[in-house]
Amino acid sequence: xxxxxxxxxxxxxxxxxxxxxxxxxxxxxxxxxxxxxxxxxxxxxxxxxxxxxxxxxxxxxxxxxxxxxxxxxxxxxxxxxxxxxxxxxxxxxxxxxxxxxxxxxxxxxxxxxxxxxxxxxxxxxxxxxxxxxxxxxxxxxxxxxxxxxxxxxxxxxxxxxxxxxxxxxxxxxxxxxxxxxxxxxxxxxxxxxxxxxxxxxxxxxxxxxxxxxxxxxxxxxxxxxxxxxxxxxxxxxxxxxxxxxxxxxxxxxxxxxxxxxxxxxxxxx
Length: 269
What we know:
The protein is of the alpha/beta class. The protein has helices spanning 17-24, 29-34, 41-51, 68-84, 101-110, 128-133, 152-162, 177-186, 202-208, 240-255, and strands spanning 56-58, 90-92, 116-119, 142-146, 168-172, 174-175, 192-194, 199-201, 218-220, 225-227, 262-264.
């Protein structure tokens, strides 16, 4: 008598992990945090793939979480993802809830190959945790951040000391001669500089147009407020002669630049 073949029913944990991860992506964020990760190791792994994919650590998800319990759960899964995978290349920091000193240092230690950092934080948030983390990211090539007035020079100096390969820099805030001098001396290979939507000292702008950044290809000063030594907007409609003179001087400097291919300058500037 021929024995009947036992038909094996596949387990959910043996399902294609990419398909499971795609399915999980349709779940509400709360369910992703507190549902599938508790089922089995395979579903935990699929959840990590859903939250952190394409070698990008997107921490802006924290801004969508309503309470501390949800944020703690997310940071727990973040720690698991960092320990499980290697080769992270980009990190997007949250806008409303900056991670603490120990949290940022832990992330930086585990992700030494990070090449891009994006910090679209509110001006009220301190950049100190990021400042402390920069020495661990020596391969950094892209850095963009909105900084508080009293932190810009410190962060730029830290970048210049430890991140020698920066080719794209975006800093927004209060830009004076000190910040620009640090940029010129610290990033000789800089190709893209974005200081748009900043308060820019007129002497700092003049330094940028002197051509000392020989490899610079793109300069963005869109919607900058250009201020004089007295801190007042130098482009004042009531002082037409002063504005015209300043514009002519800057246009003459800009016309002599040979390296820059794109100069973005509209709005107040």
